[in-house]
């Protein structure tokens, strides 16, 4: 247990000292950084991390596949409890933060005043900062989820969460769940999902969450992924699963399933959400759209994945292409609400594999890199489970 002592209006002393795991370069183990004193500005809060989960982007960073400003504290999917608050600190719903609140928070920190924030895209704020992505600097050492504590800055969307919801369900809310909701918002802006045929390419946590949300909205959902266990999970959600590598005679082939849907009165895919980032999946998602359909690109977050498109085909089919990267605070609120009402019927907790203590973060990242689990957990002070 950590104890928190205020030594002034702004300064907070935590005993034992908060520890953040700092990443410097590929192939080098993380270094532990102690931060005995934390200065909270007005509107800020200090949260003790209950559980963090490893996003695939964290794995790509430690492999050297993503540009990173080092040294940095990775991790942007987590749930925790408020242990100190600065003057005027509030949740996204306007309610003052209180000690003991169990919360999740946005991956982004936005100013709320620039032209992008005021026109509804705060996730691309002109002065954007992101948890788990920023170079460690004095005054914000606790800036990522792979730590015992995280310092929440002004401009962070903070959402209180239920005490009964498992941490394995809640931790990914601030990345995978909220991004999934933003993707379906982009689709439903053009297409009524109730009764529509929806294709989801990629059955990582975003793809499976999109599928669960689309089923809840009344859509007929097809999920495409090469991994048999993830296809099985998708079927458990009420979706039809297809294998992009299936042979022509396989019932799991996409064109076979689409033909069956047409016979049932669903002649066209009206929404396709691409979550894998694979160029072949992007082509499949956009190429499968029927007249008036909308394709939402979510997974293409790495360079070098160019895809050739036929603009005439897009024009003649009246296809809309939308792109989603991160989300708004209001979408995080709705994402949490989805988890709170659905976690008993949708076993999201089963998608998180072993949970490692913070000191074994490098082992946890190595396990996450194998792809055996959709997510791997990291919990301060925990033994491997």
Kindly describe this structure.
With 385 residues, this protein is of the alpha/beta class. Helices cover 25% and strands 26% of the residues. It folds into 2 domains: 3-166 and 343-379, Quinone Oxidoreductase, Chain A, domain 1 (Alpha-Beta Complex); 179-323, NAD(P)-binding Rossmann-like Domain (Rossmann fold, 3-Layer(aba) Sandwich). Helix 4 crosses helix 10 (329-342). The longest helix is centred in the C-terminal third of the chain and has 14 residues, at 329-342. It is globular and about 65 Å long. The mean pLDDT is 94.
Classification by helices and strands: alpha/beta
Beta-strand proportion: 25-35%
CATH topology of the largest domain: Quinone Oxidoreductase, Chain A, domain 1
Helical proportion?
25-40%
Tally the beta strands. Answer: 19
Domain count: 2
Low-confidence stretches: none
The radius of gyration computed from the alpha-carbon positions, rounded to a whole number of angstroms, is 21 Å
Shape: globular
Task: Summarize model confidence as the mean pLDDT.
Answer: 94
Give helix and strand order, one letter per element, not per position: EEEEEEHEEHEEEHHEHEHEHEHEHEHEHE
| Biggest beta-sheet profile | 8 strands, mixed
Mind telling me which CATH architecture of the largest domain this is? Alpha-Beta Complex
User: Distance between termini?
Assistant: 20 Å
């Amino acid at each position: 247990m950590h104890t928190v002592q205020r030594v002034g209006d702004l300064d907070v002393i935590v005993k034992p000292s908060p520890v953040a795991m700092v990443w410097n370069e590929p192939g080098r183990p993380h270094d532990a950084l102690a931060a005995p004193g934390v200065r909270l500005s007005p509107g800020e809060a200090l949260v003790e991390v209950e559980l963090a989960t490893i996003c695939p982007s964290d794995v790509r960073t430690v492999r050297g596949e993503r540009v990173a400003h080092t040294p940095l504290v990775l991790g942007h999917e987590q749930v925790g409890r408020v242990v100190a608050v600065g003057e005027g600190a509030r949740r996204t719903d306007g309610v003052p933060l209180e000690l003991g609140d169990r919360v999740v928070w946005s991956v982004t920190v936005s100013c709320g005043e620039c032209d992008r924030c005021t026109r509804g895209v705060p996730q691309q704020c002109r002065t954007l900062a992101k948890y788990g992505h920023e170079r460690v600097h004095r005054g914000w050492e606790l800036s990522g989820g792979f730590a015992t504590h995280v310092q929440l800055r002004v401009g962070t969307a903070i959402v209180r969460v239920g005490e009964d919801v498992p941490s394995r369900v809640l931790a990914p809310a601030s990345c995978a769940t909220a991004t999934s909701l933003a993707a379906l918002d982009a689709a439903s802006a053009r297409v009524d999902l109730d009764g529509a045929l929806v294709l989801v390419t990629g059955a990582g946590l975003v793809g499976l969450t999109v599928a669960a949300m689309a089923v809840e909205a009344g859509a007929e959902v097809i999920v495409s992924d090469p991994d048999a266990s993830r296809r099985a999970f998708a079927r458990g959600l009420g979706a039809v699963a297809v294998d992009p590598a299936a042979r022509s005679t396989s019932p799991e082939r996409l064109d076979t399933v689409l033909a069956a849907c047409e016979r049932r009165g669903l002649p066209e895919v009206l929404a396709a959400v691409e979550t894998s980032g694979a160029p072949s999946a992007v082509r499949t998602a956009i190429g499968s759209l029927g007249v008036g359909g909308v394709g939402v690109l979510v997974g293409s977050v790495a360079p070098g994945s160019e895809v050739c498109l036929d603009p005439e085909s897009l024009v003649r089919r009246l296809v809309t292409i939308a792109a989603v990267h991160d989300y708004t605070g209001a979408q995080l609120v709705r994402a949490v609400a989805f988890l709170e009402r659905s976690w008993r019927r949708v076993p999201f907790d089963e998608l998180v594999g072993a949970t490692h203590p913070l000191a074994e973060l490098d082992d946890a990242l190595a396990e996450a890199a194998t792809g055996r689990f959709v997510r791997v957990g990291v919990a301060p002070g925990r033994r491997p489970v």
